[in-house]
Specification:
Bound molecules: zinc ion
Distance between the termini: 54 Å
Number of domains: 2
Strand order of the largest sheet: 2-9-8-5-6
Structural class: alpha+beta
Mean pLDDT: 75
Largest sheet: 5 strands, antiparallel
Helix content: 25-40%
């Protein structure tokens, strides 16, 4: 890198935007600036190369609802590091990402999603995996309306015990208890936006084989904006679907 202070400041500023760039969250002008910078900056190119595989995985995830996790498991930090270590080169970077996430949560804003954004969303997904693996029976919450959903199952192995929607002030949630999701395989849930016709990500989980699992899959899409719920396997094949 050349030593110009202006150039370094630009590098630092745009580096913070790489995560948002990879997720496609930047306005066009800002996005063009990031692309132009990345063309001429090997360090940012390397960072982006690390982030992009994650961004592909997470396209469409809305991070807003991750600001209100119920109660992260006590070993969440370790889970995050284990997951993120594959994608990022050093422990220091992971700790930095965690500190940035704490700052980001305090700021409670989507603006300035930094280079850590992709790692942050992975952390949220890991939280979801932990929830998905939980076998603790759900405590019935009588005040919460629960709208049962009849899911069409696209895989012989999968058995759904209960499934339903819970409308929230911040969006809609699919609560599902079932088994037969391929052990260790990754599944992603979506709600279809009835206005745009497009699927919006509602989180991911990892299959637990024949063990029963409880999944709470949340979307910032409001209940009355959602027309379909879909769960796909890693190949993109639909394994569960219901018009809602
Ligand atoms: Zn740079």
């Amino acid at each position: 890198m050349n030593g110009s202070i202006g150039r370094n400041a630009e590098h630092r500023r745009l580096r913070e935007l790489l995560g948002s760039h990879a997720l496609g969250h930047l306005p066009p002008a800002e996005d063009a600036r990031v692309r132009a910078h990345v063309d001429g900056c090997a360090a940012c190119r390397a960072d982006l190369a690390e982030i992009e595989p994650l961004a592909g995985l997470l396209a469409g995830v809305d991070v807003r609802h991750f600001d209100e996790p119920a109660s992260p498991p006590s070993d969440l930090g370790a889970l995050i590091r284990a997951q993120v270590a594959d994608e990022r080169s050093s422990q220091e970077d992971d700790d930095l990402a965690l500190r940035r996430e704490h700052r980001r949560r305090r700021a409670s804003t989507r603006a300035g999603l930094g280079i850590a954004a992709a790692a942050v969303v992975v952390a949220a997904l890991v939280g979801g995996i932990a929830v998905g693996r939980s076998t603790v029976p759900e405590v019935a919450a009588p005040v919460i309306p629960f709208e049962p959903v009849a899911l069409t199952v696209g895989s012989e192995a999968i058995e759904i015990e209960t499934a339903g929607l819970v409308p929230h002030t911040w969006g809609v949630e699919l609560r599902m208890t079932g088994s037969g999701f391929t052990q260790g395989a990754r599944f992603k849930a979506y709600f279809r936006n009835s206005r745009t016709g497009r699927l919006q990500t509602a989180g991911a989980f990892v299959g637990t084989g024949s063990d029963s699992m409880v999944c709470n899959l949340q979307s910032a899409l409001m209940r009355n904006e959602a027309s379909e719920v879909v769960v796909k396997d890693a190949s993109g094949a639909v394994v569960l679907a219901a018009n809602i």
